[in-house]
Amino acid sequence: MKFSLLLPIFVTYILSSLGPAYAGSDFGAEDDNYVVMLSLDGFRHDYLDKYDAPNLERLVATGINSKGLVPGFPSSTFPNHYSIVTGLYPGNHGLIGNSFYHRERGQKYAMKNAKAVTDGSWYGGLPLWQAVQQAGMPTASFFWVGSEAKIQGAYPSFYERYSGRVPNAQRVAQTLEWLRLPLAQRPRLVTLYFSTVDSAGHNHGPDSAQVRSAVRAVDKQVGVLMDGLAKLDLPVNLIITSDHGMDAVLTEKVVFLDDHINLAQWRGQSLLIPGGPLAYFYSPDKALVSSTYAKLRGVANVRIFKSGSLPKSFHFNANDPRTPDLILVADPGGYIGWRRAKDQNRVLKGAHGYRPKSNTNMRGILMAAGPSIKSGLVIPTVENVHIYPFVLHLLGVPITTKIDGQLSVLAPYLKTQ
User: Fold this and answer.
1) Whole-prediction pTM value?
2) Peptide bond preceding 235: is omega within 30 degrees of 0, i.e. cis?
3) Residue 297: which region, alpha, beta or left (left: phi > 0; alpha: psi -120 to 50)?
4) Rounded to an integer, what distance in angstroms lies between the CA atom of residue 383 and that of residue 328?
5) How far apart are CA 293 and CA 278, in angstroms?
6) Where are the domains of the chain?
7) Average pLDDT for residues 11-33, to the nearest whole number?
8) What is the DSSP-derived secondary structure letter of residue 356?
9) 390 and 410 in contact (C-beta within 8 Å)?
10) Of all residues in the chain, what percent carry a pLDDT higher than 70?
11) Cα torsion at 110, 100, 355, 93 (round to 10°)?
12) Beta-strand relationship, 189-194 and 139-142
């Protein structure tokens, strides 16, 4: 989409919140490492083979390229973006879906609810930008889940309020501008985010001409970013990742809930939260939970799970007030609608949110290149929680909180320092 007039961007820099460590602090020399991490939302692990992306090819030729990046459950946008920057599975950092309910708070978190998204009390773990700032270095974020919330008392040094209308080119330009700042203000970690490929995948399916065009468009901006970084004469390690992949939705595998249960029962204190290929059920009515489980247990193309017997791969705690009483998940290629008569024309052509262990199309990408990273290597499939310790190691920042990720997974691909 072209814009004749760009929206004004309000870059927030909160110097007063940075603390005494920033006041005249000599936190590093000019040759210290920098990390720029770009998320290409919905970029599936095999898109580089399927579609033309010369700049991404150029990147992996000089760095590393994973065979796939495995998201946590659910394989949705908010949970996995936050897993990447905390090193925690969704069940351990608290964002267990794009939308979910918290029994003790009596509140719902939803990705389209600005009040919830900007409320730091929803977010567990220590985000990368906070860990880096606590080590005495500025950070910046041009969109990332959690970056507009005051988590553990602070925001990134520079950050943006999310707007999908901001062109990717402007996001890249601002990233490069941040890296041109004087040393004392220059962020050592920058995160940024493109949604282009994900949107095309949802609307047209992963095998569409529109996804091919979207890959080409984001690849062009990756090239601008790479060329811009090369001109800065800074030791920047560029990491390109994605939160999940994308699967084609098959019409014959779509399940409509009103074919099987009475949706009117799931109102008031009983809450049903949809999520494309998954649905969360919360209710204090144990009889309703049991009857719903019984009715959905034998439905084709979906699997129903009780909170007390969830697969270990979910990493959910049954005693957590966010964990649903029931979780319904579609099989690969499936989708969960509410009402057949109303929703049959609203089913997306591409979806994610499935169990990543049973659907390899949920795997995203992990590519990285820079002065601290080995060149020209194809590496095994990696879980996304291992990116966190990798980034902190690149920046020389210690891990100060408990995480699920392990540095040993990606350490073999670092150059000896």
Assistant:
1) 0.92
2) no
3) alpha
4) 23
5) 14
6) 12-246+360-413, 251-347
7) 40
8) G
9) yes
10) 92
11) 90
12) parallel
Read off the pLDDT of residues 46-86 as tens digits, 9 standing for 90 and up. Answer: 999 999 999 999 999 999 999 999 999 999 999 999 999 99
Matching residue, tokens 């203000």: 185
User: Hey, what are 36's tokens?
Assistant: 């720029």
Residue appearing with tokens 């099987």: 260
> Where does the pLDDT of residue 31 fall: very low under 50, low under 70, confident under 90, or very high at 90 and above?
very low
The angle that helices 54-61 and 209-232 make with each other, rounded to 10 degrees, is 50
Q: Which of 413, 391, 367 is closest to 218 using CA atoms?
A: 367
Q: What is the CATH number of domain 12-246+360-413?
A: 3.40.720.10
CA distance 102 to 323: 8
CATH architecture of 251-347: 2-Layer Sandwich (3.30)
- 165-184 pLDDT, tens digit each: 999 999 999 999 999 999 99
Q: What is the pLDDT of residues 234-264, one digit of tens each?
A: 999 999 999 999 999 999 999 999 999 999 9
The residue to which tokens 């000599």 are assigned: 26
Structure tokens at 52: 């033309």
Cα distances (angstroms) measured from residue 73 to each of 350, 369, 379: 18, 28, 22
Per the structure block, which two tokens stand in for 192? 């940024």
Q: Say whether 358 sits in a helix, a strand or coil.
A: helix
Topology match between the domains 12-246+360-413 and 251-347: no
Task: List alpha helices for 33-155, DSSP H.
Answer: 47-50, 54-61, 77-84, 90-93, 114-117, 128-134
203-240 pLDDT tens trace: 999 999 999 999 999 999 999 999 999 999 999 999 99
Phi, psi of 397 (to 5 degrees): -105, 130
